Structures are given as C-alpha cells and as structure tokens.
Amino acid sequence: MDRQGVYGPKPRPLIGNILDMASLVSKSTSKDMDHIHHDIVGRLLPHYVAWSKQYGKRFIYWNGMEPRMCLAETGLIMELLTKYSTKVGKSWLQQQGSKHFIGRGLLMANGNDWYHQRRIVAPAFMGDRLKKNAGHMVECTNQMLQSLQNAVESGETEFEIGEYMTRLTADIISRTEFGTGCEKGKQIFRLLTGLQRLCAQASRHLCFPGSRFVPNKYNREIKSLKMEVERLLMEIIQSRKDCVEIGRSSSYGNDLLGMLLNEMQKKRGNNGFSLNLQLIMDECKTFFFAGHETTALLLTWTVMLLASNPSWQDKVRAEVMQVCNGGTPSLDHLSKLTLLNMVINESLRLYPPATLLPRMAFEDIKLGDLYIPKGLSIWIPVLAIHHSEELWGKDSNEFNPNRFASKSSGPGRHFIPFAAGQRNCIGQSFAIMEAKIILAMLISRFSFTISESYRHAPVVVLTIKPKYGVQVCLKPLNL
C-alpha cells in the first residue's frame, strides 16, 4: 500500500501495533469522564485519533500479523459496502474470535453460506411476522413497567435502567426465537452474557500464533460455557422436534427456531447448502445476542440522553401522548412518532452499537483510486465518522436530534449504525420498532432524571457500553 501513498505506524514483529493500541486505550479509559458529554472518540478510539492526524483518512496498521486498512472516506465506504458486498466479508481472525460465542451464524458467514442463511432467516424480520412481534414487545414491556411501578411504590427511586432494558430485550427475543419467554431462554441469556465477556478478553490474544490452543483460564471457561449453552439449546430443539414426531404438532412453528427446523427437513438443494443442528444452534446464539444486546444498549443510551436533556424528554412525551392518545402504541402510531425517531437516530449516531465495521477483501478489488489486494482487512471507524465535525458540523459531539428533522439526514454515507448494502443488519427494522414501542410506553408512564450517582464512562466490550450502567431516578406520571 506504500506505493499508493497509504502509510501507517511501524509494526513490531509478530504483534504488529497491538501493544500501541492497548496502551493508548488503557490510558484513555483509565479515568471516568468528569461530566456527561459525548466527545468520546478520543476515549474509545485513541489510536484512530492519533494515527489519522498523522496519516490521514486512510492508513495501514497491523493487528498481530493481519494488516488492516482504516478507511474514513465515506464515498469509498459506501462503494465498498454496496458495490462489493459479495466480495468482502468477515476475516478468519473475526471468525475465530467468535467461534465459541456465536459460531458460524449469519453474522460471521461469508459467500454462498451467508447468502443462503440470509435467505432462510430474512422472512422472520419482514411483513406479517415482524408485525406479529409487536404484540410480544408490548406484552413484555408492560411487565417491565409494572415491575418498575411496584419498585417505586415500595420506596425505590433510583434504577440502573440498563439492567431492566437488557432483561426486557432478552425476554422479547426469547419469545421471538423460541415462541415463549421460557426459563431455558433466561439461562441461555445469562450464559451468553458471560461467554461474550470471556470471548472479548480471549480475542485480544488471537493474533499470537497458537494462542487459541493454549489451555488457559479463558479458553477452558469459554468451552465450558459453550457446551452448557448448546446443551440448553438442544433441549429446546429436541422438545420442538418431539412434538412434531409424536403428532402433537403439525409443524415446527412460525418463530425463528421453527423456520430453521422446517428448512433443515428439506433435502440439500442444488446449491449444496443445507442446515444442520450445529448451524441452527449458531443461528439461535447469533440472533439471541444481536437481537437483544444492541437494542438494549440503544435503549439505555437513549434513556440517558433523554434524562439529561429534559426539554427533549418533554417534547417526545407530548408527541407520544398526542399520537397514541394515552394508549398503547400501535404499528400505525409508530410511523407518526417523528420526534422519537429523531431522538433514536441521534442516539445511534452518538453511541452506535459498534465502534468499527470490518470487511476483508476475498479478491482483488478497485475502490475509487485504491487497489485493494485480496486478504486485506478494511476497518471502518463508524464512531469517528458519526462524530466528524467535517460531516456533521461544529456541534457534532452534542445531542441535537434536529439534525435528523430532514429525511435527507437519515441513513446515508455519514450515518451507518446498521452498515449498508446487502450485508446490512437484517434485524434493523425489528430493533427500531422495538425501541420505539418500549420508549413510547416508558416515557408515557414515567419521567426520569439522571441520578447523582451516575458516572459517565463509555467502554467497548464488542459494543459500546456504560461501564457502571446508567442510574436514573424515576417518577410515575399522574395522568
């Protein structure tokens, strides 16, 4: 890449620039932020800030022995994600890092496997099936709101809202996947949470040759948790299969698991692709993680933003009351909640689920004026793009939902929380519908302010999380 004028920091043998990145992140996150503000790129991506100042919007760095090009030019990014969506995908390192977590589910699949997996699961997030899920969302949210109401009536005033949102979205995705908020679903949620944390820690060492074979504490715990998750999933799957085999049910069901099991019964097609039990379990883990983790964080950060911006909280509440007329939000209502949609978009801009979006080239490609050789990983700094003063103006680090008032300010080159192109997030419509329903119901039942105990300290553990949670004070509305 030197010949094309793309440079970067000098790598060390075997480990590349890993120690440099680790040192910068350790230093930038060693202290909590002194107050709530949203200038977080330097905190979470200090290496990007340092190297982009020195080398520009495109530079090369090394993750161990894997070369990566960081690319922050939005025109080239959209070309990569749309024109070359079938020629790029997830790297071997990424797949190994999530092997025991979500396996080879849709999120980590490439090529024809990705195409066929996407075709199978897409109907679960479209049309009538998507609308049907709204009922689960309302039912689960009502249960959470009643739990909060009971706690308030018993004298509690402060709540770590992230815990409630995480349990709520896990319950919703459990019903969507398995048709019920079963106890096994709750156990899987707890185990996957631990597995995510361990895999994130272990993935830091993947760049070292042979590290995944070392029987250290992380690897032993990861394998143990993986086996327990898959044991529980197999019990759910076997129960569904037994119901069909003994004639208690004529189909495997219309939820995600049922769709996957129905597909597995089909003979291998001419394309050579077929589902097996391991892949079904990987898909279940993938959607259980992606279906609750990112939405729970979107909700948590949005509540934090509304709690610390009371004027916007009042505006959104007034809109919800007017549109829903004091009742439960329906699907027809959701499209009319314009201010709420603007707030959600601004939350996704300031605190996108992922700081980075990676793509590896599976063949040589021409990207604008750049020749990208096969095997080069391209890393898109989503967080930095979302906070760019050049793209968003001088208030790029401020909470200003009005920037999304115009339809032209929606998804596009500068706003990519769900990626773009064919490999965009398959569940984005599900996530936005879920977020709107939950926030509309919460804001019409309670007012909320930031607690004095809240410490603003975003950190990255695969996704952007509040290090200590988000503590808010709730007050029931007497309507």
Automatic annotation (TrEMBL):
Keywords: Heme, Iron, Membrane, Metal-binding, Monooxygenase, Oxidoreductase, Transmembrane, Transmembrane helix. Pfam families: p450. Belongs to the cytochrome P450 family. One of its GO terms (molecular function) is oxidoreductase activity, acting on paired donors, with incorporation or reduction of molecular oxygen. It comes from Tripterygium wilfordii. Its cofactor is heme. One of its GO terms (cellular component) is membrane. Heme binds at residue 425. InterPro entries: Cyt_P450 (IPR001128), Cyt_P450_E_grp-I (IPR002401), Cyt_P450_sf (IPR036396), Cytochrome_P450_Monooxygen (IPR050665). It is a single-pass membrane protein. This is Cytokinin hydroxylase. It comes from the Eukaryota.
